[in-house]
Design a protein that fits this description.
Helix content is 32%, strand content 28%. The N and C termini lie far apart (30 Å).
């Protein structure tokens, strides 16, 4: 199994782990919808951050489908002061993900048709990272709640 997001983040500012769920998405007809339903169930009282988490998860899953041959699972961890999402795929190429994605052009002709997914993740998440695992990689996004430590 891939490392937990707590191991990847190395930051106790999220507080104690309250809930953890691994949701297998491999072979699902609608993996993004499945992930959003699980997130809605786990983050039902977190309002706007739940919406952000669903968008981040959708973008990470779309990237895994488009660029990494498919998604294996999503790891959802809810902490006292935020949440962490880990999307696992079987492609071990961690160098393909830019550390600071951008799509800041204001000219319509220069705006990329693709490539906004990681820009959204970078904008909505408090932090995100990618780590190679035994069988591929995990992309983790952490969303903190307003007023967290």
């Amino acid at each position: 199994m891939p490392p937990t997001t707590a191991e990847l983040v190395h930051d106790r500012s999220l507080g104690d782990l309250l809930q953890h769920r691994d949701v297998v998405l491999e072979g699902r007809e609608a993996p993004q919808r499945t992930a959003r339903m699980e997130l809605a169930d786990m983050l039902n009282s977190d309002g706007a951050r739940a919406d952000d988490a669903m968008l981040v998860a959708s973008e990470l899953i779309a990237n895994a489908i488009q660029h990494a041959g498919g998604v294996v699972l999503i790891r959802i961890e809810v902490y006292e002061f935020g949440s962490a999402l880990g999307v696992v795929d079987r492609d071990s190429d961690t160098g393909a993900l830019p550390t600071s994605p951008s799509n800041s052009s204001t000219k319509l002709a220069d705006v990329a048709m693709n490539g906004r997914g990681l820009f959204l993740v970078h904008t909505l998440a408090s932090t995100w990272s990618v780590k190679q695992t035994k069988d591929g990689k995990i992309v983790v996004a952490v969303l903190t709640r307003a007023g967290s430590r």
